[in-house]
Write a structure and sequence with these properties.
- By secondary structure, the protein is of the alpha/beta class.
- It has 14 helices and twelve strands.
- The strands form two sheets. The protein has a six-stranded parallel sheet, with helices on both faces. Strands 7-6-8-9-10-12 form a six-stranded mixed sheet, with helices on both faces.
- Strand 9, helix 13 and strand 10 form a beta-alpha-beta unit.
- Helix 1 packs across helix 3.
Length: 342
């Protein structure tokens, strides 16, 4: 068997470029103080030899790992079943890849995983963390602060005085409350007067804000028109059955996300309710192709999920490079998308 050629070394690049080893090291590691003609010679030699920098050695010089942890406070069964996470991860991955950074995915199945994630972040493996889908009692913000890792959060913080919270917390969110108001106003504008709401898990600020938006619009709502969901199709089905049993005269439903709305549509069909003739339905997210493939296609509130991921990564990279002026909270607008369900 033929032995593979030896890996090009820093010394080989220096010899090919006709410069010192120190000059090559500065160019490869992004240092300053090298004249442009020498930079071009070093880069040409790197390309000709196929030199790949040793990441461990490079980290000793730059104190950077070019790696970012993405921490999702959900079990893998939820993450890989919900297209919301795929869209947000795609946005994050695009932004990190464009800046030659690696994505390290960390999930928390339960409380026993928090210590593992905290130790990993404190171990100097990554430069920063992007964290989303937090719940109100989640210890991750405090663990991240204790690890000393710069972080950007997905979703409005709702941790109160918990460690990790504070006025300087950087986060990206969409206008959940305003989007919910638009959804319910749309249903009211259609002449619907008994508008129900299927919530998300209310220990997450996105679900709580959507419930507040619903209440902003309907006023003193009938508690019988509100049912607890969990952002899953199964949760939407259970909540829809509960609502129909309590209030069979309801004529509209605002579901806290598209997956819940899809579950609600199935129950309405099984119960012989026509959509939208008997019951109009609006979701939240506009996750394609899901929203277009429900029966009937779903009217929903669009939030820019992929762009939220890209912006989270962009804000973190700005922090890592010392760029000033990063806004603590960025809230992206939502838009109502009308389809056949309402």
């Amino acid at each position: 068997m033929t032995e593979s050629a030896p890996r090009p070394t820093l010394e080989a690049v220096a010899e090919r470029a006709g410069v010192s080893r120190a000059t090559v090291s500065r160019v490869v590691n992004g240092g300053d103080g090298v004249r442009e003609p020498l930079v071009r010679r070093v880069r040409q030699a790197v390309e000709e030899l196929g030199y790949v920098p040793n990441q461990a050695a490079r980290s000793l010089v730059t104190r950077r790992h070019d790696a970012v942890a993405v921490v999702i406070a959900e079990p893998e069964t939820r993450v890989f079943a919900d297209p919301f996470f795929a869209l947000q991860l795609r946005g994050i991955s695009k932004e990190l890849t464009a800046h030659d950074n690696q994505l390290v995915l960390l999930l928390t199945e339960g409380p026993e995983d928090h210590g593992r994630v905290g130790r990993y972040l404190a171990g100097g493996h990554v430069d920063g963390a992007l964290v989303f889908s937090l719940h109100l009692d989640d210890p991750l913000p405090g663990l991240i602060r204790g690890a000393g890792v710069p972080a950007v959060f997905g979703g409005r913080p709702g941790w109160g005085d918990a460690p990790g919270a504070g006025p300087g917390t950087v986060y990206v969110d969409s206008d959940n409350r305003g989007g919910a108001r638009d959804a319910v106003r749309h249903l009211a504008g259609l002449g619907r007067t008994r508008i129900a709401h299927i919530t998300g898990p209310l220990d997450q600020t996105s679900a709580a804000d959507r419930l507040d938006g619903y209440r902003d619009t309907v006023g003193e709502s009938d508690p019988g028109l509100i049912a607890a969901g969990d952002f899953t199709p199964g949760g939407g089905e259970r909540a829809m059955r509960e609502l129909l049993d309590r209030r069979p005269d309801l004529d509209a439903v605002f579901a806290a996300n598209d997956l819940s709305a899809a579950g609600a549509l199935r129950v309405l069909r099984d119960r012989g309710r026509r959509v939208p003739e008997d019951v109009a339905v609006v979701g939240f997210d506009d996750m394609l192709p899901l929203a277009e493939q429900t029966d009937p296609p779903l009217t929903t509130v669009r939030q820019p999920i992929e762009e939220m991921g890209r912006l989270m990564a962009r804000l973190l990279l700005r922090r890592l490079t010392g760029e000033r002026g990063t806004a603590a909270g960025t809230v992206l607008p939502t838009t109502l998308v009308r389809r056949a369900s309402a």
